[in-house]
Each structure stands twice: as structure tokens, then as C-alpha cells.
Amino acid sequence: MQIIHTINELNTWRKQQQIAFVPTMGNLHAGHLALVKAAKEHAEHVVVSIFVNPLQFGQGEDYSSYPRTLQEDADKLIECGVDVLFAPDVKELYPHTNQDYCVEPPALQHELCGRFRPGHFRGVATVVLKLFNIVRPDFACFGKKDYQQLAIIQGMVADLNVPVTIIPVDTGRDIDGLALSSRNGYLSPQERVIAPQLYQMLCWVRDELIAGRRDFASLQTDAMMKLNQQGWQTDYIEIRDAKTLEKANENHHDIVILAASRLSNTRLIDNLEVHI
Amino acid sequence: MQIIHTINELNTWRKQQQIAFVPTMGNLHAGHLALVKAAKEHAEHVVVSIFVNPLQFGQGEDYSSYPRTLQEDADKLIECGVDVLFAPDVKELYPHTNQDYCVEPPALQHELCGRFRPGHFRGVATVVLKLFNIVRPDFACFGKKDYQQLAIIQGMVADLNVPVTIIPVDTGRDIDGLALSSRNGYLSPQERVIAPQLYQMLCWVRDELIAGRRDFASLQTDAMMKLNQQGWQTDYIEIRDAKTLEKANENHHDIVILAASRLSNTRLIDNLEVHI
User: Fold this and answer.
1) What CA–CA distance (Å, rounded) separates B158 from B33?
2) What is the pLDDT of residue A14?
3) I need a labelling partner for B227 at 20 to 30 A (CA). Which of A13, A96, B199, B253 fits?
4) Is the CATH number 3.30.1300.10 carried by domain B182-275?
């Protein structure tokens, strides 16, 4: 009998599978395909899931109207050489009326997007854990576009010893800078023209920081006012520590600027990392 | 590329490991060894963990005095033919000061033992999930002695799609009926003599139920008063549905009688299933 005292030793004793996993809500665009590409670089087998998760949508959000395009998505994934597309229906993941046992993330779940989407990150963490338990991948790829989601999943994986290595993948952007998102499809042609203003505002904040501005609170307010003057309704623009997502102060050097803002009914999010 | 819509199909596609797991807090007695025996019947490889989990102990409980007997435990497990003993220290499972991400069980966590041990079942569910993520077993054996714990772990596993089959194992008892427990070691010789009264009281309730009594509330009160008259301080004696642990009524036929009671500072629990 071996007596093992560390998790590392136990992992060595155990056989490793080699699967990389890309959980998505479907309606795949080039940003998702970049995740698949990253997955293929990390493991022999790639599993992609498509599941629009009711648990992470709030009342009045776009759960029922969220675009569902399984056939087109499958065609794209075949072309990318994916091994398995896992596309469960809601009853397969939630056979009972309730999800009784949830992953409860720490206070960060109530900040930034969590302030405007109560319960969202509990729903995300719970469904990601469920999908990890079902697929049992070694690697899982997440886009930096959903920066807070990525931070919460990285925290969950570390804290609950989930045997999955998280691979962050850079945000895909259109040629005018707009971050790729399935929700871009909600924009009218006129809105699509001004949508890159969100990314441009993040770049302005980055440039102000690089130029030496350190009055973070008023810089945030300035950016929010500028954006709202252009016709946006802004939930937040915040300057945070890139790793912990705590509010940044002069001692922080690896920064992320995060924003969520609405053009009529379409809520867009984006973020930008900067070293100062 | 395969398109898979159900969890079962996905499990078939994936390779299965064959490991059975017995999580314990050590100080092993015949009850634990029965769990190891059950584990060996279910899988080729058996992993046992020994970890006294601070997260499931409340303030004023016996975390620091809980018996730690690693060498004797290892000797017993070698004799049973266990493959791996996983005995992490506290820093290995909780490297940070806090466990930030927890499994939050439903309302049952606040009933029965949960009423007297706030946070206990959140701590149990969380550490069991962590251990499952570390060991990644196919099977895990739990004693029916901790009946509510077993119910909560079964609920968690089903609800979070944890890829582990839970094997319930009957409570081991001394010849006089006392349920085997590491906490029996806290009893003075005089207390040890009267300790089987707890099990005897469960048997009395069972016999009353079999004889046709259906006034559950007053039956519970009668049993509690009788036990307290014998010098016990009883937290609860309750009649519940054996599967859901909801309060039993005349429509329930598979019943479990659960009790927790104290002899001076030693808190003992026990339970008895009955079909009526």
C-alpha cells in the first residue's frame, strides 16, 4: 500500500485522460473557434458543449430569445475537427424542477456584472462544474471576453480541487475593435456602427492610465459619462486588479478595465488588460 | 465528429477508471473496515482517505481533540489490502485561509443534526466534493450511521452530475447494539455501559410503529423524554421518510428514525430504518 500525502503525488498515481473542453452556449463565431483551436493545441481529443443554461439567466433577460443554431454550429465544429459535440437538452442537465445543490462563489459574484445580474455567476459556476463532471476534461478553454466569469471559474477550480487546467484565450475582435459576441446579432445596423465605441472607451482609459492618471474613481466616472453622452446606458466601467479583480489602487500594476453598457436593449461587455 | 445528447452516451464514449474510495476521518474501527470491504467488492483499486476536516466542525466542537491515529490506521488498511491511503495535511486541502467556493446544500442541511451544527453539512459536502475531485473514484462508500450525511452526498452527486456511484453500507454495531463510532472513545466506562440505550430507544420507536402507532409527533416526544429520564440530553429523535428525509406522515412507508443525544460531553448519533 502506498501512503500519499499530497494531491500532486495522487495525480501522478492516477492515469491521465487527454481531453480539452470548450463549453459554449452555441451560435458559434470566430471567438468560439479560437477556443477550439486553443483546445486542440492542449489535448488529443476535443469536446465542445452547446447548452443555453437557464440557471445563469435572470428574469427579463434573453434566455428564450438567445440564438440557437445547432446545425450551423455542428457544421463549423466538424470543419474544425472536433471529436464530440455535447448538446444536451434542459431536462438532461436539470431533470428536476430545481437545482438544489449549487456552487456558491465568494463576494466577487455580487460585483461588476453580478451587481446587475443577481445569481448569474452562481448559475455559471454550477453549470460549469456540472459540465466538467460530465465531460471530465483535462483542459478547458474560456475566453477573456467574459473576464469575471473566467476569474470565478479559475477560483472555483483551484478552491474545489477540480482536476481541470483552465486555458484563458484572448478576446476575438472584429476589424473595427468590437469584441465578438453572439449578442452582437441583436444590434441594428445603426447600432452596429457605433458599437466599437465601447472598446474605444476602454482604450481611452488605458491610454490615460499609461499617461499617468491615477485618480481611478474620477477616471471611471469620466469614461462612463463620455459613453453615455454617445447614447449608451452604462452599467459600469471599472479599473480592477487583473488577477484578483479587487478594486485597483496605486499599488496595482497589472490592471484590467472592465465595462458593461447597453445600446437600447442590447447589453455588451468588454475589457482590456494593461500593465502600468 | 459524434453529436451526443445524453450524459449516458457521453459516459460510454469516455474511458472508465475503476477505483472505489472510502473517505474517513481516521481512528478506524470495524465500521470503517466494512466500508473498505464494500469498496473492494466494487472496484479493482481501493483508495482510503484520512482527513479530519476543519470545515465541518463548529466552534466548541471536538476538532482539536478528535482522535488522530495514522500509524495504527495505516496498519489496519495494509492488512485489508488497500492500494492507496491518502492522508493530506490541512494546508494541502486548504492552502488559503478561507475556502471561498462552497457547495451549498438545500434546506435539509439546516434540519436534524444541521439544527445543532450550523455549517456542518456545507463543510461535509464541500470537502467530499474536493476529495472526489482529487481521487476521481468510480465508487465511494459511506456508512448509513451518518444517514443525513449520506442523503446530502447522494443529493449532491445526483444534482451536480458528480461521476461517482455512492455505495451505502450498513451501520456496524457492537454486540450490545451501540453503533460503532470514533466518538465512542470519549465515553467513560460507566457511560459506555448505558450508551446502548440510544439504539434501544430507536428499537422501541420502531416497535411502536410496527405495532401501528401513527402519532409521530407525540411518539417522538415520548422517546425523547424516556431517553432524557435515563440521563441523556437529547438533541432530537425524529421519524422521517427514509429516502427524502422529509417529516414522515401516514403516507410514508419507508421510514427512518434518527436520533442525536449527549452523555455529558459526548454527542452520539444513530438511526434505524423500518418499513411500515
Assistant:
1) 26
2) 65
3) B253
4) yes
Q: Where are the alpha helices (DSSP H) in chain B?
A: 7-13, 30-42, 70-80, 90-93, 113-116, 120-135, 147-159, 189-194, 197-210, 216-229
Note whether ipTM > 0.95 here. no
Residue A245, sorted as left (phi over 0), alpha (psi -120 to 50) or beta, turns out to be: left
Domain A17-169, CATH 3.90.230.10 — does that match? Answer: no
Whose grid coordinates read 493530506? Answer: B88
| Chain A residue nearest residue B16, CA to CA | A17
Half-sphere exposure of A143 (CA within 13 A, CB side): 25
Give residue B221's identity as a one-letter amino acid code.
Answer: T
* Number of Cα atoms under 13 Å in the Cβ half of residue A95: 9
Q: Do domains A17-169 and A182-275 have the same CATH topology?
A: no
Domain B16-169's class? alpha beta
How does pLDDT run across B102-133, given as a tens digit for each residue?
999 999 999 999 999 999 999 999 999 999 99
User: How many Å apart are CA B50 and CA B22, to the nearest integer?
Assistant: 9
Give the whole-angstrom CA distance, residue B41 versus residue A191.
64
The cell numbers describing A26, all together, are 452555441
Residues of A in contact with B159 (CB under 8 A): 96, 99-101
What is the per-residue pLDDT for A97? Answer: 76
How far apart are the C-alpha atoms of A132 and B233, rounded to whole Å? 45
Q: Per-residue pLDDT for B174 more than 60?
A: yes
Mean pLDDT confidence for A242-247? 96
Chain B neighbours among A 68-107 (CB < 8 Å)? 74, 77-78, 81-89, 92-93, 96, 98-106
In three-state secondary structure terms, A184 is helix
In this prediction, residue A96 carries a pLDDT of: 86
Q: What percent of chain B has pLDDT over 70?
A: 98
Report which residue type is found at A86: F
A221 vs A17: CA distance, rounded Å: 48
User: Strand, coil or helix: what is B180?
Assistant: coil
Q: What is the rounded CA–CA span in Å between residue A100 and residue A215?
A: 44
**What's the pTM value of the predicted model, to 2 decimals?**
0.92
Cβ neighbour number for residue B1 with a 10 Å cutoff: 16
Check residue A130 and give its pLDDT.
96
> What pLDDT score does B17 carry?
60
Q: Which of B3, B13, B77 sits opposite A1 (nearest CB)?
A: B77
Catalytic annotation on A42?
A: no
Q: How confident is the model at residue B16 (pLDDT cuts 50, 70, 90)?
A: low
Closest chain A residue to B79, measured at CA: A1
Tell me the pLDDT tens digit for each residue of A127-151: 999 999 998 899 999 999 999 999 9
Domain ranges of chain B: 16-169, 182-275
